[in-house]
Write a structure and sequence with these properties.
mainly beta; 8 helices
Amino acid sequence: MRRKQLFAIILAGALAAGSAPAAVFAAESDVAAMSEEGTGDTGSEDAESEDGSSDAEAPVTDGGDAADVATNTPAADNTAAEETPAADNTAAEETPAAEETPADTTPAEEAQTQEQTEENKEVDPQEGESTETVEDTGIVIADANGDPVKDDTGNVVYYKTLQDAVAAVADYDEAANPDATTIQISKPIVLDSTVGISGKKVNIQSTAADVTITRKTEGEPFKGAMFSVKGANSQLQFFADGSDSAALTVSGKFSDDTSEEAEGAIVEVSDSAVFGLNPGVTLKDNSYSAGGSAINSKDATVVLVGGSVTGNFGDMGAVYSNKDISIEGDASVAGNDGNKNITLDGEAKLVVTRDLTGTSSFSHKGEKDGLAVIKAGEGVTKDVLAAAVKNISYENAEKYELSAVSDGLSYSLKEVKKEEPDKPVTTDYKLSYTSNSKKWINHTTVQAKCSVTGDCEWTYFFVDAKADNASITSTYAGLKKSLKFTSVKANTEFTVKAEGVPETDSKLVVLTRKNSSDTKPKAVAINLSTSSMKKSRPAEEKPDDNKNTQKARTHKVTEGTVEGFENPVKFFPKRYISFTAIGAGTRDSAPYVSGDERWVPSYWTFSTADNAEKHTSWSVGAAKGLQLKGQGSKSYTVYVYCTKEVYNGKTWEPTDVTGYYTTSFTAVEYTDEEAAEWAKQNGTDGNGGNDGAGGDGSGDGSGGTDAKLTATAAASAKDAGSKSKSAVSTADESPIGTMSVLAALSLLAGGYVVVRKRKKEEI
């Protein structure tokens, strides 16, 4: 029996049974039917090594012909899934026990699955069909239970490329195929062409730690859009599978030179299509200025349930959209170049659909006083919206601020009014220089002290050492519009730190005025060309190792690193692992110059939430151990918070600017016998000091942190503590397909199938 006939019989049975559930925007779904293109001779040894094998650990190069799909593509899975409420975005911190108790995974109602008949199982290959099996590429399609689809012989069906897997997904059909199909990936993927999605609903889900999707860089690098989602009934979502170890990073980097731009965004979404970003996913390192560098959305829907968009470069920001963007959970769009994060256009707004813990900033191309820019989604209260807005900042804050409307359910731009110039004041006052207060800070910076007897504002500039009063007045007139003034109260001494001292003989002029209308400012001229000042002037800064004039070194907080987490660790009882946080710039070598920056680690956490516990002991472990029975391994994310310091030419001065970067470590399962042996070698009380990752296991945790580990945030405040992964959702518990806030999604007749829950562990 031909495959087409087999598919027709199965599909007819599913329709007769009425088993297709109502659908909303999906996390996982039934497997789509195999298309005709999926039966070609694509499983040949041409795609493998000379002996017909392939390296399973090497990254999968994507971007092949969409019609070149994997052999043994499965027929449609007609499993009906039980509709489940959306998961919670707020992950509660839990303290792990020494041993894990398996969670009850029995569903409320078992899904009914059609059994294959003996005739179905024994379908003979048709002419032109290949019976070869693609080796493990790490790319599979999942069934409704989240398990990889297998062929008639019981072998898992692997796809050579992501495009091949997308091609095997059936087109969206409101009656026959309304749900999204999940493509699971467990190995690195390298794209050499755009992955196109049109007329299909697809979820791409990482099932392992540190899964990456990157561009081809060898030879001619791939610079185009990495993913293209186009047209109505077209959908793409990125997920991690809900376990603490799973993560997905999509990087657009193809060159170390950030000035060299790509020719497309990481995700291009257009023409009524939908894109969703979920917890555990990061979009980063793309450089593109013709649109949003990470997400470029035109007349389409973008829904940010979680995840991070950071480290991208482009004049139009990391995320661009001319339609509303929904945002909730730990979704964060921050740390992109030039603080250009989200750019809204047209009548687009940010729609807060639930509690928001992530931080983002945005701008609007149509900015004007009174423009509505943020609103509450359906069911979101004004208190929830107000709390969310605290995590959202407007990038042109000097000109506009966010202002709540009367009902508190939306925010608009309010122009920051400039103060009117003061009227001329005739009250007299005195300006004087404090004798012997001038001194050098560095070769080009000098400091002096002055005092005034009346309220005024001051500034400074330099003139030639021989300049007279007329020259000083003339110089002030030419510089007046560009000078920066600082207010000072009456009877106050103030310090002038003057930068940019000329190499030639000069005077420092300190000038004061009552306000901008003051026609008779006062000034004192401080001679910097005396013999003592010339003699005490510091030498110019030394050249760097490359024998170039050293410039101030600046760093991003995300350039920080951590040493000590290189190897997986077995956390026996009382074993603590020391690690070292290395802030960006802290290992720069002398000499330092004025303006050098560095980020000094202050503390670390397992979450970015305001109430997250702050740890200042750089050690982590579990007093009762973390056995992870039956789980193999589990990864944890660490957030290292740093304070920015700036070199003033003499010392490092802390600022009030803080930020964080992330790292992770992996705990692995151990047996009771291994724990007993470790205790025997190190003493039953564990006395032996902290040990490093991959050390000899002699630590007792003295001074260490018995830290609480927080699992990846889910997508709903309702199911706090649940590991269930949800698709895009709003503040109430209704399916999104029925909500006006995401009316565009209802057109997709979307639905969700919940990713299987896994229990959280903590250290």
